[in-house]
Amino acid sequence: MDYKKYISEKINAEGVSGEEIYSAIALPPNPEMGDYALPCFKFAKVLRKSPVLIAQSLAESYPVDEVIEKAEAVNGYVNFTINKSALAREVIEGALAAGGKYGSSEEGAGKTVCIDYSSVNIAKPFHIGHLSTTAIGGALYKIFNFLGYKAVGINHLGDYGTQFGKLICAYKHWGNKEEVEKGGIHAINDLYVRFNSEADEQMEHEAREYFRLIENGDKEANELFDWFKSLTLSYVQTIYEKLNVRFDSYAGERFYTDKMQPVIDELREKGLLKESEGAQIVDLEKYGMPPCLILRSDGASLYATRDLAAAIYRKNTYDFYKCLYVVAYQQNLHFKQVFKVLELMGKEWAKDLVHVAYGMVSLEDGAMSTRKGKVVWLEDVIARCVEKAYGIISEKNPDLENKQDVAEKVGVGAVIFGALYNNKIKDIVFSYDKVLSFEGETSVYVQYTCARANSVIEKGGVPSEFEISGLLPQEAEVVKSIAAFPQAVKDAAEKYEPSIVARYAVDLAQKFNKFYFDCKILTAEGDKKNFRLALTAAALTALKNSLTLLGIGVPDKM
Ligand code: ARG
User: Fold this and answer.
1) CB distance 448 to 438 below 8 Å
2) Does ligand 1 lie within 6 Å of residue 158's CB atom?
3) Higher pLDDT residue, 161 or 273?
4) pTM for this one?
């Protein structure tokens, strides 16, 4: 229930609109002050009264009922206390009835959201730098679907460019079939790295030739290229399965080879294309940006050219409501330019393109580069987290069944949560110890809380009915937090910020644990036992749904 709405509709202040009241109502910093507060300072001018007097008269005239049980004026604020018993019943019954759907809605029905994420580069390592885009994009995909939108996951593969000429050249000189088949992407990457450190002028020349051959449809060059591509794709697929993410389209940069010319023609027709030192550009000086390069002087297209074609293709194919690009902030300028060019082309939907930028992830031991071959592969980070999780779990609970399965959920969860927990624009330093701490603000902490709640439910069951006779503050806090889940999901979608759901989960877990340690559940007396069991089950529902939306598994026992 929307309490702000409920309250604002019952307040009558001549000269101040209902909306103004609605938007002024806020959450007080501590629950002792009430559950909602209306600051009256803003209204002093219109009402020609001091805030203190306004608050007093609003509090006096407020009609308390079974929903809002108290309205009290304190220093220019009206503090409202909601009837927690009524709220508790509504929230618990609602969460238990909805189960896995609790927090979902149909608000996005009929709207498609394209999410361009992960977007790996063929024949290059899937390294820790791809973690954030994969985790954030994967979570947004689930969140939008949960809210009734149709999410379309797009992996805009980096499968275009001169590096493939280099790769074929390196393979021709140093590679062999068996080795590449056996080593897969690692073998391909080794060849690429070797090319960059050992190739001479002659090989550089050959590489350019091979690239030209791919472009011109040469059979052998294309077969090699397709082979490298399929090896990369089947490799990344195993990682996507681990991380619980999926894509509806793998249309990468090459896919747009024949779709760029119409865009170039349109740019020319609309008088947007300009020649500059032999190259074709769109001048963006007026908008305080460097020019957007469309064709190089040798006629080759660029990354931006393919993104222009891709945006138009997506609009035509999916008629999206929003098209998100979950890409590191290093590409801020690129997307600003591409969006601007589309706007100048008169595409009114350019306003629906959103660059969901995120910060860098590094490990404690520093940065990485593909060309030097010193990179941290994501698979190694995941494997190490799972291994560490296995160790921790075995120590904590040696008799646990399915230890390996639990370790997978905990380890993978830690990797995802580690990338998601902070506001996405922040740079993060990934620390194994931190993401696997049972005490910190981590997925393990939330998973452990779920296992705890689950074990209570296993012993006591979920009662079909319960009585509520007043709430302790610890219980009320859990109730309010469960009630806040649907809004957290909505906010996460609106701000493209899955960390809101991650932080929500930690907050509810903390409140649940406080309740768990302060209040007896299974040995509670009278009506309390059933109520607390129902409350535990409802909290578990909200916790599980949060983790699931982030792509994190929830073990029953830990
Ligand atoms: N492959 C690119 C990279 O690794 C990311 C592509 C992002 N998507 C896009 N439509 N440009 O940097």
Assistant:
1) yes
2) yes
3) 273
4) 0.92
For residues 368 and 127, the answer to whether their CB atoms sit within 8 Å is: yes
Ligand 1 centroid vs 253 CA: distance in angstroms? Answer: 9
Confidence of residue 15 (pLDDT cuts 50, 70, 90): confident
Contacts of 486 (CB under 8 A, 6+ apart): 102, 103, 105
Q: How far is the CA of 158 from the centre of ligand 1 (A)?
A: 7
Binding site membership of 314 for ligand 1 (Cβ less than 6 Å): no
Confidence band for 12, pLDDT divided at 50, 70 and 90: confident
Q: State the Cα–Cα distance between residues 85 and 469, nearest whole angstrom.
A: 7
Residues 445, 437 contacting (CB under 8 angstroms): yes
pLDDT, tens digit, for every residue of 249-279?
999 999 999 999 999 999 999 999 999 999 9
The span from the CA of 558 to the CA of 556, in Å, is 7
pLDDT-derived band of residue 247, with 50, 70 and 90 as boundaries? very high
φ, ψ of residue 302 to 5 degrees: the values are: -125, 175
Instruction: State the first-to-last Cα distance of the chain, in angstroms, to the nearest integer.
Output: 35
For the chain, percent of residues with pLDDT exceeding 70: 98
- Cβ–ligand 1 distance for 121 under 6 Å, the answer yes
Q: What DSSP state is assigned to residue 13?
A: -
Ligand 1 contact, 156 CB (< 6 A): yes
Q: Which helix (H) or strand (E) holds 82?
A: strand 77-82
Distance CA 148, CA 152 (A): 13
Q: Which residues contact 220 (CB under 8 A, 6 or more apart)?
A: 213
Question: Could you tell me where in the chain the CATH 3.30.1360.70 domains are found?
Answer: 3-82
Backbone angles phi, psi at 153, to 5 degrees: -85, 125
- Of 114, 115, 119, the residue with max ligand 1 atoms within 8 A of its CB, to mutate for a pocket test, comes to 119
- pLDDT per position as a tens digit, 329-340: 999 999 999 999
Q: pLDDT value at position 374? A: 63
Residue 159 beta carbon below 6 angstroms from any ligand 1 atom: no
Which residue's C-alpha comes closest to atom 6 of ligand 1?
Answer: 119
pLDDT tens, position by position, 91-142: 999 999 999 999 999 999 999 999 999 999 988 888 888 999 999 999 999 9
- Pairing state between β 322-328 and 112-116: parallel
Residue 429 C-alpha to ligand 1 middle, in angstroms?
Answer: 22
Domain 3-82 has CATH 3.30.1950.10: no
In angstroms, what is the span from residue 156 Cα to ligand 1's centroid?
6
Closest-lying ligand 1 atom to the alpha carbon of residue 335: 11
